[in-house]
# Entry
Amino acid sequence: MRYVINSSDTNEIYSFFIPIVSLLWRERGFTPIILLVGTREQWNSTGKNKSVLHHIEKAEIKVHFVKPVQNYKNSTIAQVSRLFACADPNIKPEDYILISDADMLPMSRTWFTQYDASKAFNFFGGNAYLGYIGDASPSKLPTRLPMCYIGGSTANWRQVMGINDLNIQTSMEKIIKEREATGCRDEWFYDEHTFANKMFKSPLITNSQFINRDWTHGRASNRLDRDNWHFNNQKDIIDCHYLRPATKFIDELFRILIPEVYCYPGHIQWIRAYINNFISS
# Structure
């Protein structure tokens, strides 16, 4: 089984995307697992997030509710919790886990399945933080790795993250406390720094695959990016860092979801119904 992990707190700018990216990931052969910061009651307490949760579960997508951690922003917990999805006891050691972002739409039907399964980890776009133009590798490590996208077997994730207790919450809080003991606190890129601190010390790094991309001004090749939005019906888009707040750009969303190329027609209808419900909630 191949899983993809996405997460969100109750910030509707991000939570809005969860049902949409989940369907797109299913089309690309991955089973979504969603980590939501807060309780079910909190997610059901506002109309829009209730709509998000309803449509996730209506699509039979697995959800884990993650508790906030004192002195950490909920957004930080949403981000870092993805590193501990491997502690889900229902995921088998041989299953594959890929991490993604809530507002990053997977567009290509082939790019995310090109990884070498014999490698311990696969770092898609792994040269993002290399610091210069070139390819990263186990012998030419970047300063850290982008969460979009890191993949590996459940067993390897558990080994690198030091998972002993198959519980997402306790595993995450254990590492947070360990990092605090070394002086690390809540910060932007907390998740990337946490993973790099573990991964670059692991012997598994020497048997990991870097799937390098070209980067220009911090933007990945073949990525439709909200910071430099130019859509002209391209058919070779890998992923899409979508415009925010997305509810102001609904027409553009359906313009890029070209039927059959990027999204099945039935899913487009489902997404349209979901968005109508979200906006009216």
